[in-house]
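Final report, Chapter 2: Outcomes

The project's central promise was a pipeline that accepts a single protein chain and returns its three-dimensional structure in a standardized token representation, suitable for archiving and comparison. That pipeline is now operational. To close this chapter, we reproduce one record exactly as it appears in the project archive, with the input sequence first and the structure output second.
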Amino acid sequence: MSYGLLRGKKGIITGALDEKSIAWHVALRAYEEGAQILLTNAPVALRLGQPQALAEKLNAPLIPADLTQIPDIEKLYDEALRHFGGPVDFVLHSVGMSPNIRKGKSYPEIDYDFYQKTLDVSAISFHKMLQVGRRKGAFARGGSIVALSYIAAQRVFPKYGDMSDAKALLESIARMFGYFLGKELGVRVNIVSQSPTPTTAGTGIAGFEAMFDYANKMSPLGNASAAACADFVVALFSDLTRSVTMQTLYHDGGFSMMGIAEELLG
């Protein structure tokens, strides 16, 4: 059901790889709510994923961009400003990758070159997007920017490895930049900390099924789905949340507030 929450708004969605992606669901819901969308993903993702099909469905431009590279981000905003004829009302940062996890390296034994890559792709890219967008005047007054995180930024999940550090940095960037963009433009910057979600990236983490099942048992409402997360993100893009900023908002069925569930007591 559409409520017209984003009618007349324009935005950039990063990281929509395939139908499992949270960003994919966010793009669909934003479009259903009346928004115009511009999609972007890394060149390698354009070859391996299915974002072209989504772009055609949404009648949206699809701009290749490595969000660790300032020139690519500058080109992305230039294309968005040209396509929309002005600044964007919302941005979703949904980008993350750990070479250490891919190579099976445990947290105490991470490769530091890989570690730098993890931080750059998964967190510093967010700072770069905000910095370049601010400099180019690409954010509309009163707009909304959202990035996706996981509770491992705050608690120990050993198999999540150096992505835990990256998500902690991502959340800090949202708070810091949220202050400056809020003061200057009334732009909100928030984090959605989502339940374990069986995305292509998520399922690549060792022990993901155990993490998923444990969270599902612990959460009074069960794990939140990608589609439900998209509803929540769209609400944050909308004017209904115009006074919410600099927050890490847990969209996890109540998991973040739990000590232990009765079902796990035996």
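Archive annotation: The first helix runs from residue 22 to 32.
This record, like all others produced under the grant, will remain available to the consortium after the project formally closes.
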